Amino acid sequence: MSGFFKSSIGRKYAMALSALFLMFFLLQHFAINILSVFSPNAFNEASHFMGTFWVIQYVMQPVLIFGVMYHFIMGFILEIKNRKARVVKYAKNNGAANSSWMSRNMIYSGLAILGFLVLHFIDFWLPEIETKYIQGDMSGLLADGEGFRYYEELTHKFVNPLRVGAYVLAFVFLSLHLMHGFSSAFQSSGVSSMRKQKLQAFGKAYAIIIPLGFIFIALFHHFNH
Amino acid sequence: MNLTLKIWRQKDAQSKGKMVDYKVTEISEHMSFLEMMDVLNEQLINTGEEPVAFDHDCREGICGMCSMYINGEAHGPDRGVTTCQLHMRMFKDGDTITIEPFRAAAFPVLKDLVVDRGAFDRIQHAGGYISVNTSGNTQDANAIPISKHAADEAMDAATCIGCGACVASCKNSSAMLFVGAKVSQYALLPQGQVEATDRVRNMVAQMDLEGFGNCTNTGACEVECPKGISLENIARMNREFLSASIKG
Lengths: 225, 248
Prior knowledge:
A: mainly alpha, B: about 250 residues, alpha+beta, Ubiquitin-like (UB roll), Fumarate Reductase Iron-sulfur Protein, Chain B, domain 2, five-stranded mixed β-sheet, 9 helices, 7 strands, elongated
């Protein structure tokens, strides 16, 4: 396997595998977040479990951070390399004649998602790390000790319409990214069934339903609190 | 038909090129695109100008020599054809047609619309073949049973004429459709199995060395390929490469 990940195809595999992992993470993230719409208690319980279970915190979380960073950094590296592969641009290029807008602009939808992730980390992840690992409060309880804090923190974040707007916009870009990314990850992995209608239809459904679900959660809490 | 042509003119590989406008008149819609270019060149010769250099050979869509980027697409707006098979009926009277060479760092322009596609030859030399001892007792290839499905898929891959439209169309100038087809045409057949590991490793290594970009699965190559080479060939090459890398 020496040199595999330095080769163009090895990097395709690595991008695809990190993408598949991130898509699985996204599904899990959505499954927990949607609980907040139906049952604040269930959301609190699930959030506390995810935030304190050692496998999630010390194994999966570092893997996730590595996966996110790898996907972004390698995405940039490949973009730079690809731009160098055509020094003189075409005077006239009709990209729309042979490929989708989403497939040609993954770097821009990716950048929009990266911008969102910075906001999301500042909103949720950094305060969570500060509470748990700097203050040492692993209880997950509100300051007055009356129940878990997770649902209260979530709903509080979605009061500001500007933040909600930014979230909605980011999920539109996420949907565009997934529209190409889902089937692309399978194609890169060498899955020959990629072209079968079912897998493509599933990919499109995933790319629409998951981001739309996140948008629904943000709007639901904005208009209900 | 009367047309305005915007054509890339470049004296030689070292010179800086530019787009130059030309007018051509009384072009028949039954002409092929290359015949229209012949008319332009006759016109240029008659006025003492340097004719436009462009690659062509068989003019029947087999040799893979013609290589023009016409109105923003490799081989022009028609599907499943090379430039020589493109007919002027695809255009309208009064149209302005932009004609450029295939663009890729790995395909340097030699003159006007002629590019050096030697990178494809070097990839082929790296492993796009099978070694057969022709000592006189070589087994007849037709005596080896091959499933109809595998034979059809191998033949589909082998129809690649190496024109480079895939590279020209890809926003990343990736050569993976070409290399995928060349790897697949052997990987699908028993004769190709013996050298399969070295073949895919060497051909991919040479492809990377030539400076082609990375495939991001836009699918533009498949759409613009005059022979309809499928993206399945890239997926197959990826599997072959992974398998070869694991074998070490």
